[in-house]
Design a protein that fits this description.
By secondary structure, this protein is of the alpha+beta class. It has one domain: Beta Barrel (OB fold (Dihydrolipoamide Acetyltransferase, E2P)), CATH 2.40.50. The chain contains one helix and seven strands. β4 and β5 form a beta hairpin. The longest helix is centred in the first third of the chain and has 15 residues. It starts with a helix and ends with a strand. The model has no long low-confidence stretch (mean pLDDT 87).
């Protein structure tokens, strides 16, 4: 029993140092609101979903990179997001926003 506990403790310790990579998630919808720090889209179900925007977020229209201010309400977009967990909530940070 003690050996199992020690083995479990060692496995937990080894895994604690490793960062788990969560794959990017993709969302589509129309722009409901946009600012320099946040974009809100309305998805096909009619739900509003917020995404954080930071200096690393790439905003594209076709193959051309544009600024976040180049997006307007009603634009159809696809957003690839990185999921991050904080202590009390899950944060969705936009990695790439592509306007059609």
């Amino acid at each position: 029993m003690l050996m199992r506990f020690v083995a479990l403790l060692m496995a937990t310790w080894l895994l604690a140092g490793q960062e788990v990579t969560i794959p990017l998630a993709t969302f589509s919808g129309s722009v409901h609101g946009v600012s320099s720090k946040l974009i809100t889209i309305e998805n096909s179900d009619g739900n509003l979903v917020d995404f954080e925007v930071n200096r690393k977020t790439r905003v594209m229209r076709g193959k051309k990179q544009i600024s976040i201010s180049g997006l307007a309400t009603g634009d159809s977009v696809t957003i690839e997001v990185k999921q991050e967990r904080s202590r009390y909530k899950q944060i969705l940070t936009a990695v790439t926003i592509t306007a059609q």
